[in-house]
Amino acid sequence: MEYPVTSPEHAVLVTYALSGEGFGEEDERKAIYALKYRLTEAIEAADAGEFDGNEFGGGEVVLYAYGPDANRLFTAMEPQLRAFPARPAHAVLRFGQADDPTAVEQRIDL
């Protein structure tokens, strides 16, 4: 789904710790891929935006989702995020474009 250019792009960035200092174990990566599927479904069902991908490295994984309202996006994602067992974990809700130095961010521990 595309949003009007006049609508700010908010984001939810979720970070989970993985075992080791690299890309985590194979079973952890498989669990993240399954979580991505569930998050995509939840976001689409709520018409809250889109799941954009993930990045593994440095002993963690970061999940990226974007939409016009970070609160609505996080609300759609939250049940799946809290149910996922990897810890420590947190989400950052960004209210504005990535290149906007005035965009407010809110951290939520999971």
TrEMBL record:
Origin superkingdom: Bacteria
Name the record gives this protein: Uncharacterized protein
Organism (species): Actinoplanes aureus
